[in-house]
């Protein structure tokens, strides 16, 4: 289990590496990406799946992610049913 401080640090790391803003599905609003992360999860702005570039993101390999379209389908944990 991670402490809230560790979660916050990890979230910052994810947001600093996230490539969502270069994705064809990206919709610019007040969000910063990081939708794969459990405390972020789905986007409130992105509704149409026009391609997902998560597999090109350094976070994908680093966090051993398996899913896609975190913005519309929810975080890795959510999609894994956890
Ligand atoms: S894996 Fe996808 S949602 Fe997660 S940080 Fe990278 S681009 Fe963003
Ligand atoms: S989660 Fe995937 S589909 Fe959604 S904005 Fe990020 S890269 Fe694009």
Question: Overview of this structure, please?
Answer:
The protein is mainly α and 82 residues long. The chain has one domain. The chain is built from four helices and no strands. The chain has helices spanning 4-17, 58-62, 70-73, 76-79. The longest helix is centred in the first third of the chain and has 14 residues, at 4-17. Bound molecules: iron/sulfur cluster (SF4) (2 copies).
Largest sheet: none
Number of strands: 0
Which quaternary structure do these chains form?
A: single chain
Q: Enumerate the distinct ligands.
A: iron/sulfur cluster
Computed CA radius of gyration, to the nearest angstrom: 12 Å
How would you describe the shape? globular
- What is the helix content? 25-40%
Short description:
The chain contains 4 helices and no strands.
Produce the secondary structure layout:
Layout: H1 4-17, H2 58-62, H3 70-73, H4 76-79
Bound molecules: iron/sulfur cluster (2 copies).
Features:
mainly alpha, single chain, globular, 4 helices, binds iron/sulfur cluster, 82 residues
């Amino acid at each position: 289990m991670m402490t809230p401080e560790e979660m916050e640090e990890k979230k910052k790391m994810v947001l600093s590496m996230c490539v969502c803003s270069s994705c064809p599905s990206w919709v610019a609003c007040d969000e910063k990406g990081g939708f794969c992360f459990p405390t972020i999860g789905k986007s409130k702005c992105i509704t149409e799946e026009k391609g997902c570039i998560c597999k090109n993101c350094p976070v994908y390999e680093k966090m051993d992610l398996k899913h896609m379209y975190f913005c519309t389908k929810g975080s890795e944990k959510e999609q894994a049913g956890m």
